[in-house]
Amino acid sequence: MSKNKNSQVIELPISLSVRDLAEKLGTNPIEIIKTLMQNGVMANINQLIDYETAEIVAVELGYNVELEKIEQLQADENEIPLWRRMIANEKDADLKQRPPVVTILGHVDHGKTSLLDAIRETSVQAGEAGGITQHISAYQVTHNGKLITFLDTPGHAAFTAMRSRGAQGADVVILVVAADDGVMPQTKEALAHARAAQVPIVVALNKVDKQNANPDFVKQQLSEVGLIPDDWDGDTMVIPVSAKQGTGLGDLLEAITLVADDTDILANPSGKVLGTVIEAEKDSHRGIVATILVQNGTLRKNDILIAGNGYGSIRAMFDYRGNPIEEATPSTPISVLGFNEVPSAGDIFYTVDSNKEARNIIAEKLEKEKASVSTPTGSLTLESMFDQFQAGQVRELRLIVKADVQGSLEPIISSLEDISANDKEGTIKVKVLHSGTGNITENDVSLAVASKAIVMGFNVSTDNAASILAEHEGIEVRSYNIIYRLLEDVEKALKGMLEPEEKEVVVGKAEVRAVFRIRKLGNIAGCRVIKGELRRNGFMRVLRNGKEIYKDEVVSLKHETEDVKEVREGHECGVGIKGFTDFKEGDVLECFVKKMVKAV
Ligand code: GDP
């Protein structure tokens, strides 16, 4: 490695992402990731590393670095939140104060969740709390007649996701610091994020009820990172609270309203509708449910929204208590039904005039993405690894392993590390790049992307965002609930013996409009194909009220009186299914074919 690339000293913050480090050093992120790996740190491009780690990498790559002075740790000027840019176009006279939106950040176990729960319980007006049927990830409280909106997605992952898309949900950050534990690595990370996003901070000094709480010591630590408490002549409000005993919460709400009053938190309620997606998921009963935060304008039922690559007319809209509402003004968190695709946390949404306009905008966006992004160079699956071993391209099988509990993780890792195979080139080994307990997350998948690894889960599920990323990047995520199966598959992959798996691929859907009785064949469903096509050589699933009640081979497919091989969308046909005669009007038939696929 060439040393002393630059005699100039480069200042780095206390925490930054791999991408930002590469940018600051003027080098390739891959170079950084490789150097991190050589030092035993597995990180993907968006991962945050602390200054100490960044320094090791930088020095190894021949740069001179030092820690940025706290007073220089200022906001990135380019990072003016979208809503601020948006209101810059509004006339001053139209701008009105809106409730502050608050998010809670801090080190793990310092009490973020407990604090959110305590505020929700004590401050959501009596009688209302009981009405919360559908939990949405935000709520509102009233303090001295003023509304405050809380984002109930603790942790800076959600905050970062929003920032990385140029969105900014929060106007005020509550930094929770446990009085018995003090400033910890994630406290510093959270602080770095809040500062970069130019969001004012209120410190909640939590767990003051604990015997070993040491508020003065923590205040000292806070001062060292530039958060000087106001009772020490600084300008950071540090509010002692106990989420457990419910004390200090009123003071905390008061501090939020004071900070909010000092900051221009404005919107034009009759301006262009704009906001941020907080989270979204597909619900088996209700379809796509998105929790969104309106930041400008007033959103009304039946408005047409675009977010990410999806759009939809708002079929129904609910407040955080689950009550149906007709309109939502700025800073109101709501859940909406009607999107045709699941948007991501942090996607910006806005309204358009018609479905046609929405479709055109998305088509154009997809076209642009297609032109600018090179498609992934082929999927990375356990099955395809063998070809790569054979081609001599890869000599190790890299895995990321997640399990439900430490007790199962340890034996899996040690058994995996014992597996190896020999071929003419030598030995191929398993290398576990990262392991941990808990669900498979977006971070696991992005690490797999950066390091060409496969993700294996044991008794865990895969987060929605992780599945989307894996699908998009062609990364295989395999799930198991029997340890030896997992080990067996890895062994087979090394030896090139892994069988492709059979997968059902849906090719079309039809709606049953009438039922006919035909001699010899029994009952036949008279259908209209509503999506894709039905195939004579396929299989059919019968869905009644959305639930599967039967599936088997197609035994007859007729268009009018003729036997046909396929029937396409918009056409009528008669369908017979092996062993099934109990069709009912309104049933949905889903036609699928079986394919041998490499990916799970
Ligand atoms: P998070 O990881 O930051 O969301 O932390 P949690 O809210 O899950 O809290 C972590 C642990 O600290 C839990 O066992 C809580 O019961 C406990 N805890 C949270 N707040 C307090 C507090 O004010 N006092 C005491 N004694 N324990 C608390």
Salient structural properties:
binds guanosine-5'-diphosphate, seven-stranded antiparallel beta sheet, 34 strands, 15 helices, alpha+beta, six-stranded mixed beta sheet, 600 residues
What is the typical, i.e. mean, pLDDT?
Answer: 82
- Note the total helix count: 15
Calculate Rg over CA atoms.
Answer: 28 Å
Q: Give the strand content.
A: 25-35%
Main sheet characteristics? 7 strands, antiparallel
Uncertain parts: 70-79, 125-133, 372-378
Structural class by secondary-structure content: alpha+beta
- Distance separating the two termini: 40 Å
Write a structural description.
By secondary structure, the chain is α+β, with helices and mostly antiparallel strands. The chain is built from 15 helices and 34 strands. The strands form eight sheets. It has a seven-stranded antiparallel beta sheet. The protein has a six-stranded mixed beta sheet with strand order 7-8-6-9-10-11, sandwiched between helices. Helix 1 packs across helix 2 and helix 13 packs parallel to helix 14. The longest helix is centred in the middle third of the chain and has 18 residues. The chain is globular, with a radius of gyration of 28 Å. The relative contact order is 0.08. About 4% of the residues have low confidence. The chain binds guanosine-5'-diphosphate. Guanosine-5'-diphosphate binds next to helix 5.
